[in-house]
Amino acid sequence: MATGAGGLALRYLQTYPKPHQLRWSAFIVPNTEVKLMAPARAGSFNANFSPETLESFKSLCRDQSRQYTKVSERLAELYLGSQGSILDAPEENLIGSQTSSPEVDKLAKSVEQLETVTAIYREDFEEIVSQLKSIEARIKKLESNIVQ
């Protein structure tokens, strides 16, 4: 492609002689075509990722047994849901941060309940051990009274 005056892209168009012409000629015409990369099918997506990024992304998705197209779709949904503000946050805040979602909220509540139940069981166990020690001491006292 050549560039003409005003930065307009030019393309070369060759014409071949018709039977009644003696020779062919070449014309230079402005390239006014707009080339759009249309998806191969409805719902498909073409992206120009750097090869390293794309391969790392696909590899991570494969390692986690997820389809990278579904992960991309979910990322797009998160972006739309945040009205694009997801990219406004500094990168260091994005790493390790949790997005609020029903699944995350449900898991956080479950963890809280589990911690509460564990604390209750620990207290109950300590109480049972204390009672057993008390019973053991009383039995030893009773046995010592019987022997005498």
Features:
148 residues; mainly alpha; three-stranded antiparallel beta sheet; 4 helices; 52% helix
Could you state the order of secondary-structure elements as H and E?
EEEHHHH
| Structural class determined from secondary elements | mainly alpha
Approximate strand percentage: 5-15%
**Per the principal axes of the C-alpha atoms, what is the gross shape?**
rod-shaped
Tally the helices: what do you get?
4
Average pLDDT figure: 75
Distance between the termini: 115 Å
Please count the beta strands (DSSP E, at least 2 residues each).
3
Which sheet architecture does the biggest sheet show? 3 strands, antiparallel
Using only CA atoms, what is the Rg?
37 Å
Residue stretches low in confidence (pLDDT < 50, at least 5 long) are none
Strand order, largest beta sheet:
1-2-3
Helix content: 40-55%
Task: Give an account of the 3D structure.
The protein has helices at residues 51-63, 68-81, 91-94, 102-147; strands at 2-3, 9-15, 25-30. The protein has a 3-stranded antiparallel beta sheet with strand order 1-2-3, with no helix packed on it. The radius of gyration is 37 Å and the shape is rod-shaped. It has 4 helices and 3 strands; from the N terminus they run E-E-E-H-H-H-H. Strand 1 and strand 2 form a beta hairpin. The protein is mainly alpha-helical.
Summarize the structure.
By secondary structure, this protein is mainly α. It contains 4 helices and 3 strands; from the N terminus they run E-E-E-H-H-H-H.
